[in-house]
């Protein structure tokens, strides 16, 4: 309740109906220019991740008996899933990189 007895807040200078204007009235930091986008190919990152999962899969197959004895036989299935998802992600990143950088690999 305001000091004059009404339940409406007092009218402020400027319209508070516009959220953008209200934001700019209370904003304390100056506008900073947006950073330029980093041009980074994602395919090598996806390949590296898939390679890590492949190494994990090979290791789980080499140590299958000790893992089964300790109740961790599910690690092999987890590593296989990582390889499959990594292959799908690598394919998606190849397509995205071609769209973003063009078909020429020298750009």
Automatic annotation (TrEMBL):
**Which Pfam families does this UniProt record tie to the protein?**
DUF2530
Q: Does the keyword Iron-sulfur apply?
A: no
Instruction: Specify residue ranges for compositional bias: Low complexity.
Output: 1-21
Where are the bilayer-spanning segments? 45-62, 74-96
What are the entry keywords? Membrane, Transmembrane, Transmembrane helix
**UniProt-annotated stretches for the region Disordered:** 1-28
Q: What is this protein called?
A: DUF2530 domain-containing protein
Which species? Glycomyces mayteni
């Amino acid at each position: 309740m305001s000091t004059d007895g009404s339940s409406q807040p007092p009218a402020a200078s400027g319209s508070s109906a516009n959220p953008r204007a209200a934001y700019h009235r209370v904003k304390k930091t100056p506008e900073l220019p947006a950073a330029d986008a980093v041009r980074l190919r994602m395919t090598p990152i996806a390949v590296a991740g898939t390679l890590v999962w492949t190494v994990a899969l090979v290791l789980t197959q080499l140590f299958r008996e000790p893992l089964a004895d300790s109740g961790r036989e599910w690690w092999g299935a987890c590593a296989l899933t990582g390889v499959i998802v990594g292959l799908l992600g690598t394919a998606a990143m190849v397509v995205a990189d071609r769209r973003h950088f063009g078909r020429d690999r020298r750009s």
